[in-house]
Automatic annotation (TrEMBL):
Pfam families: Abhydrolase_3
Cited SUPFAM superfamilies: alpha/beta-Hydrolases
Protein name: Alpha/beta hydrolase
Domain Alpha/beta hydrolase fold-3, residue spans: 79-282
Source lineage: Bacteria, Bacillati, Bacillota, Bacilli, Bacillales
GO molecular function, one term: hydrolase activity
Keywords in alphabetical order: Hydrolase
Amino acid sequence: MLRSTSPEQLSAIKSFLRQTSRHDGKPADQIRREMDAAASAIPLLPATCVQQTAIGRLQGEWVCTDTGETCPDEIKRIILYFHGGGFTSGSCAMYRGLAGRLSEASGVKVLTVQYRLAPEHTYPAANEDCLSAYRWLITNGYPAQNIVLGGDSVGGSLALMTLLSLRDAGEALPAGAFLLSPHTDLVHLDGESYRSRAELDPTGSQQGNQAIADAYLGDWPGEPPALLSPLRMELCGLPELYIQAGDHEVLLSDATRFAEQATKAGVQVSLEVWDEMWSVFQFMAHMLPEARQAIANIGRFVRSALKLPPVGGAIE
């Protein structure tokens, strides 16, 4: 992938992330406060519009950018986005910046979901909430073919688990899904990149990801549910998938192995691996040209999946 940020800038950013992104041993409320504070410093695009909404019993936010390209409401083509945060943190407010950029790149509205968090709400609470949000859209007049799922980190996991649950229930699947640095195996954590990228990754580690899995499972009895390891499930019948990962993240193998397995199962998959990038580098689009280009690529995928012309063309 094209690299635009200088080596000196990348080194400085990674050094900062190493100091601020590790949350080992911290209580969930402290992690949430710190992450919300960090996100509040990220500037929104000037044209970002935010509208809070009730999604059944859940809360969510509609986010769009008033650029003249966003689809009219009557067309009802959208992105349903599940945020990351290790199942214990993350919020709609924290993701307004990224959601606004995704809306600008795709020309469609983004709906973010405030799903329940661990440790107060363990498995399957977040899974149930994501499924509920998708079904709420269907009930409220959004055809499945007009919806693209998106998510980062564990939000990418939730997008995959939502797809698998819908498929197994015989329900209509969305037009596609994009996954940013997804956890595709929260059970075994045995990807090669846990070792080869351990010193390169400024934000993630095998120990940290084990803590993520433990927090979400809580007191779950017996073996972890198979759904927490999409990598090892039957993947046939899923819609088109678009995956982005960083070459310096410990989750790289989760992305590459999943893309390989899904392709073998007959799923159309596109995988981008960005040189010298880390998990969910797209979150720093306000300062990283690579992140802005990655989001532009996501926008093209979304419009293709929704059968929309390139941004600037007439809506069908």
